[in-house]
Amino acid sequence: MSQGNTPLAPDRLALAESLLGHRFNRQALLREALTHRSAAQGRRRSRAPSNERLEFIGDRVLGLVMAEWLAERFPGEQEGQLGPRMAHLVSREAVAEVAETAGLTHVLNVGANEALTGVGRLATVLADALEATLGALFLDGGLEPARAFIRRAWAEKMAAQVLPPKDAKTALQEVCLARSEILPVYRLVSSDGPSHAPNFVISVTAHGQTGIGRGGTKRQAERLAAAELLGKLR
């Protein structure tokens, strides 16, 4: 992970291109995609923009390619079944896992102080960076390089889809109601971290068991807590 408010070195850009499977004609796009706003602070915006604008584009690219892929893979399903599949595959947790597996943590440029506190490994930061990278791929080479990377990077997650997945909180509620009329109880355990990278810890309890989730948003932490408790109840 690149630290400090300096642009990514050529060797890290070359590594990023190797990870993505694409040689950039405009490497400035790749630099921008891999620059967290903490690394862009204090530098002229025209020279070192953060990846937030590219993230906006990449989010739409991911949605389009994933919708195309799902429709192709499950031709007999309607929107009500494809929607949960899509939500699962493009969730913050899933995108962050793909980013880490793809090696994005080794090339992401974050500020020196943030690097020391592990901001570059937060799910929200990784997911945003990957979406920004998809935006850069699209702007540099069109849809095909973005599609090729997505289908390669998400292949395992797509192959694991048999039945349309359920949100962990919904699934936990159904399991609890099937056993009794007692619903799971969520509780905020702690919240800390800087405003641009908060960290929430939430617990959920039901039927004498407890699950703990940690995330950059309360909703994410609740889902992770529900997923942990589901594993225990099942």
Summarize the structure in short.
With about 230 residues, this protein is mainly α. The protein has two domains: about 1-160, Ribonuclease iii, N-terminal Endonuclease Domain, Chain A; about 170-234, Double Stranded RNA Binding Domain (2-Layer Sandwich). Helices cover about 55% and strands about 10% of the residues.
CATH superfamily descriptor of the largest domain: Ribonuclease III domain
Sum up the overall morphology in one term: flat
Round the Cα radius of gyration to an integer and report it.
Answer: 19 Å
Q: Roughly how much helix do the residues carry, as a percent range?
A: 55-70%
Number of helices: 12
- Helix and strand content put the structural class at mainly alpha
Q: What would the average pLDDT be, to the nearest integer?
A: 85
CATH architecture of the largest domain: Orthogonal Bundle
CATH fold assignment of the largest domain: Ribonuclease iii, N-terminal Endonuclease Domain, Chain A
Give the H and E element order.
Answer: EHHHHHHEHHHHHEEEH
Strand residue content: 5-15%
How would you describe what is shown here?
With 234 residues, the protein is mainly alpha-helical. It folds into two domains: 2-159, Orthogonal Bundle (Ribonuclease iii, N-terminal Endonuclease Domain, Chain A), CATH 1.10.1520; 168-233, Double Stranded RNA Binding Domain (2-Layer Sandwich). 57% of the residues lie in helices and 12% in strands. The chain has twelve helices and five strands. It has a three-stranded antiparallel β-sheet. The protein has a two-stranded parallel sheet with strand order 1-2. Helix 4 crosses helix 5 (79-89). The radius of gyration is 19 Å and the shape is flat. The model has no long low-confidence stretch (mean pLDDT 85).
